[in-house]
Amino acid sequence: MTVAIEMGQTTAGAPATLDLEELLATRLLVQGNSGSGKSHLLRRLLEQSAPWVQQTIIDPEGDFVALADRFGHLLIDAQDHTEQGLQVAGERARIHRVSTVLNLEGLDAENQMRRAAAFLDGLFEVARDHWYPMLVVVDEAQLFAPAIAGEVTDEARKLSLGAMTNLMCRGRKRGLAGIIATQRLAKLAKNVAAEASNFLMGRTFLDIDMARAADLLGMERRQAETFRDLERGQFMALGPALSRRPLGLRIGPTETAPRNAIPRLMPMPEATPDAHAIILAAPPAENNRPRRRSAAPDLLGQLMAAKNIASEIRPEAEPSLTAEQLAKRREQLDHVLQAVTQQPNAAFQAIGVLYQEFVVRCRIEGLGAAVPDLGEFRRMLTRARAGLGSDVTEDDDGWQDVSARASLLPEDMQGVFMMIARAAKEGWPCPGDPAIARAYGSHSLRRARRLLTYIEEQGLIVCQIDGAGRRIVTLVELAWATAPGDPNAEEAGNALAAE
């Protein structure tokens, strides 16, 4: 089905349309200096396409919150949610096909990057069954995919840039159509900007930006100066969803308006005789001064403090359990976890979805007070996907060494390493790529091979291929080695599969 979105009029007075179906496959880059009309363009596009496709907007300035009232978008205030909560929210929004606005207003640059990255990761990592078409609009994209390091930490920049790269480079197959807007192309990471096939270039004045805009539109360098003459709301368009040749257009009106209106000139008030006394009066007492809203790090500290207090109180509120009772509880939790992981496609579902199912089943079994938190559940699930029972490491120095080495890896890779370690300890065939991918929670065999390469680069294993093309993995320092195994085998060896 072809849906033509009317964006406005061309310079010749004809309707300027955008092919929505083509846009979903080819992505869009919008560039223009502050005041050129980028946000107005995005608002027009979102309003016109709202009835046809799911949308999400990464909104650093709170400009698009009005869409929630007019078109029913779910407004998510990032200040009120943790990064983990936002990742789960992204997954659920994708699953239930709810359009959203992620309002990042009020956060500093680093927290904006972290929370936007978490939400985008939730959209990206959802299971294949929920890869519905979706427009993902990122305003002021240079904040989330900067070309050079700024004042934020390297970790925050890496998280945000990775999420933006996934959106623009790998999102198409998952149904995600990235629409990014930036004030300057020079500030935007090249690998993010390069993936767009449609361009809308607005007013700009710097020579380097004009030259890059002209190159993207296939215009001659001498024509680049025309970008200085564009008025607010005027753009040059090019791309399969817009026009095969550079086309000038003017964006039409919108139904909603930004919350932050453009400042207008207004007359000055009459001079106040006691202005000096009012402005330079002594400040109020410190305890009477209105306090600013606590920043996210302070909230996190309060939450951690509350959690520590709760952990100190819990032993008094809950009677101590005998070793036999603890063993029985552990067995019950393992039974519930096994029931969750044996559901169809459980290996590829999001952590948040599985945790909800786990909590519900625990309550049904009468284990409401003993439900592990999300972090502990993640560790339990990692071990279960790797085929490891809760008793594997007890009273075993070798397995304690394995756990110590696994802790050097990212949490989602630890289960894969431990699965290979167990196969090596028991002398079972090396797990095949399908088994490794399943333990990691992925369908991709290529990702499974990359995981092995990464773990080998960390100096934890050595991979070899024998003359028959079978893979052997040896654990460094432990002298454990798997039996030769077919990399394409569906199961992780008969013994491991039997469990």
From TrEMBL:
Domain AAA+ ATPase: 24-214
Protein's name according to its UniProt entry: AAA+ ATPase domain-containing protein
Gene3D superfamilies the UniProt entry points to: P-loop containing nucleotide triphosphate hydrolases (3.40.50.300)
Pfam families: DUF87 (PF01935)
InterPro entries, per the entry: AAA+_ATPase (IPR003593), ATPase_Atu1862_pred (IPR014588), HerA-like (IPR008571), HerA_central (IPR002789), P-loop_NTPase (IPR027417)
The organism's place on the tree of life at top rank: Bacteria
